[in-house]
Amino acid sequence: MKKIILVLIPLLVLTGLYAVEFDISGQNRARAAIYNNAAEVDGGHIDNRFNIGFDSQFHQNLSFRVAAEIGDIIWGNGGGAIGTDVAFDIKELNFNYNIESIDANIIVGQQYWMDKMGLVMDDTFSGIMLQKQFGDAIDAEFAWMKVKEGPRNLKDDHDVFMAHAKMDMEMPIGMYLFFGNYEDVDASNLTFMPYLSMEMGPAGFDATAFIDMQMQNDDTEMGFGGAIKAKMDLDMLELGADLLLATENGLSTVSPWYQNGLYIYGIGKYHDGLNLYWNTPYEGNADMFMSAVGSLRAPVSEKIALFGALGFLTDTGLEMNAGMEYELIPDLLNMAAYGAYGMHDDETNNYILGTSMNIEF
């Protein structure tokens, strides 16, 4: 804990002394769950995590951001104390400079980025990003991501180069282009990933497709696929659908976090650490992969809503889940309780009962 304080105090002091403008944001999340594992052995745990970010505006053309994360802290490891084995990470540490001559922003350092669905990446990275608007309708991003730095005198690094353009229209469309270079295994990938969004009254959907060329030595493999997230708001009932398809070889990723709304066979909103069988199954897959999930949400009052989902994954199984959301303090404190049951193709049955409390500021 002393190390945490020694890091945070100087950051706060420096930020407060020199910042023209100063903003703080963060999250404090606690969650508990009982469940069984893939061998049907019962267990459970409680954990919590704290994130905090500081944004400082030093100059109209220069801002600075630092963000830290403490946890996940498993309760009972070391009593009530936060031991030295608890993760404490500086997740973001960057400056954002506006280049007036070309009307663009350059962000240098550790920064957060995700593609539209988190298929390739939803995480922080070390690198450089250039953001530029062309006209009134086109927003573009260009980034170099240093994914892995091996021994500094060896050519064994992993770098990813990304370009992204989005046209802001009535039906927004865009395209991602990724080139990944793995020097340690003499491999690379080239990914094209177009997407579009559409709103039609109470209905809307987001669709993403991908073509992924995977090259190693003299061999080239191809992966194809896509994802669709659809929704319909019927006032008293909100319906949703999530479909993800990937052919053999699938999609090359960096640090993905695709949420399909399941807890045993995927990643759900209120607990992302309990999935037993989701290990980015659309990357390097030997066969056709599909995840199909239908969901609903029914507001009971201004503060309470019920939700549920039913999903199927190829070569995995079927999951059903349901729960309740409760907004204790609007836009600040909310909690949820949920349960999930999964029936695996190998006849293993899994369950989860959990709750989550979350403060966002």
Describe this structure in words.
- This protein is mostly beta strands.
- Helices cover 5% and strands 62% of the residues.
- The longest helix is centred in the N-terminal third of the chain and has 17 residues, at 2-18.
- 25% of the residues are buried.
- The protein has one helix at residues 2-18, and strands spanning 21-36, 42-59, 62-74, 88-99, 104-114, 122-134, 138-148, 158-167, 173-182, 187-200, 203-216, 219-233, 238-246, 289-299, 304-313, 317-329, 333-344, 349-360.
Characteristic terms for this protein:
18-stranded antiparallel beta barrel, 18 strands, globular, 62% strand, single chain, mainly beta, 361 residues, 5% helix
